[in-house]
Every structure is written in structure tokens, then in C-alpha cells.
Write a structure and sequence with these properties.
This protein is mainly α and about 210 residues long. Helices cover about 75% and strands about 0% of the residues. α2 runs parallel beside α7, α5 packs antiparallel against α8 and α7 runs antiparallel to α8.
């Protein structure tokens, strides 16, 4: 087949392509799903008994704010990266990890101040499983949204996507878990976010293998 004939054949079989909504709009849509999943997790597992008094606790509020910021910024950055050429600055993907680093530093400093390290930490795996479970639906939805685009920086996109989804689960666990031990928070609450970010980066090629505009 001649080149001109091939082009004509492809053009005749082409179907209209619906442009994706702007990354900001897609981020808000995903955040609605993530917060709904977090609320559902709180309803299923129940709220911690001292929740009302914790609303005046600076450490609790800071950790919750960092978890929420990580979820929002990570998902926004991932959705920007799914559109080739949309990223204007490396700050887009760097800022979420800066917030995640601040969260990690805050929790780690609390562990050091407690002067008991991670010895005697119990039941952290229960919270780790719950964080992962609550973040599962947001993760599936976000990956599906990203696969409708064309991520070029796949490792960054995968890490941001799973970190954001896990952060939504970690936000929910703040309102669920009655344990105030810093080591427990590091392993059971923050740990899954860091682990899933690494998994997202390692599996990004498979996650987005079929990605492309539809």
C-alpha cells in the first residue's frame, strides 16, 4: 500500500477524540473519591474515643494536614504528568515529596523524642493494612485516570499516584486509631505511604504500559 493510500485509509477510520478535562478538574474529582473512601473507612472501623479532645492537639492537626496535603499535591502532580508538556516546572513533582518528607521528619522526630525507638511497637500492622485497604479504591481510580493520559515520567507518576492514594488512607486512620505511640504512627500510618510510593515507582512501567490518549 502506498503511503498516500495508507494515510487516507487511517484517516477514514479515525474516530473523534474527546480531550481530557484539565488536570485541576480531574484532581478535584479524584479528591472527592478519595475523601469518600476515607469517610467510608472511618464509618466501617469507627472513630477513636478521644477524637473531640484531639481537635485541639497541634500534633494531631499537623499530621492530618500533612496527610491531606500529600494526597492532594501527589494526585495533582500525577495528573499533570499524565499530560505530555503540561509540567512547567520540576517543582510540580518535587513539592509533594517535600511535604511527604516533612511528614516523615515530623514523625521521626517524635519517635526520637520519645527515647524508646521502635521497640515495643505493637499492632502497627493492623493500621498498615487498614491504610492500604482505605486507599485501594482511590488508587484504582487514580491509576485508571492516569492511563487515559500518556505519562512520560512513569516512575514519578507511579510513585505520586500510590503515595497520594495511601495518604488518603493515612488521613482516615488518624480519626480511627486510638494508639498515640509515635513508633506505631511511623510504621502503621506513615509506613504504608512510603512503601506504596516505592511500589508505584517500581511497577510504573506495568501500570502504564497501555497508557495513551483515548
Amino acid at each position: 500500500m502506498k503511503t498516500d493510500d495508507l494515510i487516507a485509509d487511517l484517516a477514514s477510520r479515525a474516530t473523534p477524540v474527546r480531550p481530557l478535562p484539565a488536570p485541576g478538574i480531574r484532581t478535584l474529582a479524584w479528591l472527592a473519591v478519595a475523601m469518600a473512601s476515607a469517610a467510608a473507612g472511618v464509618l466501617v472501623f469507627g472513630t477513636r474515643p478521644n477524637l473531640v479532645s484531639l481537635m485541639r492537639d497541634h500534633e494531631f492537626l499537623l499530621t492530618s494536614a500533612l496527610a491531606l496535603a500529600t494526597a492532594g499535591l501527589s494526585s495533582a502532580a500525577a495528573l499533570v504528568l499524565a499530560v505530555p508538556g503540561a509540567e512547567r516546572s520540576a517543582l510540580t513533582r518535587g513539592l509533594p515529596f517535600a511535604v511527604l518528607g516533612m511528614w516523615t521528619l515530623t514523625v521521626s522526630m517524635t519517635v526520637l523524642e520519645a527515647s524508646q525507638g521502635l521497640s515495643g511497637v505493637s499492632d502497627w500492622y493492623v493500621c498498615a493494612i487498614r491504610v492500604t485497604a482505605i486507599g485501594l479504591v482511590p488508587a484504582i481510580v487514580l491509576v485508571a485516570m492516569l492511563r487515559r493520559g500518556a505519562p512520560l515520567r512513569r516512575e514519578w507518576t507511579g510513585a505520586l499516584a500510590l503515595a497520594g492514594a495511601a495518604a488518603a488512607g493515612a488521613l482516615a486512620i488518624q480519626f480511627i486509631c486510638p494508639v498515640d505511640d509515635a513508633g506505631h504512627a511511623l510504621l502503621g500510618h506513615l509506613g504504608p505511604v512510603l512503601a506504596l510510593a516505592a511500589i508505584g515507582a517500581a511497577t510504573a512501567v506495568r501500570l502504564f504500559r497501555r497508557s495513551g490518549p483515548i
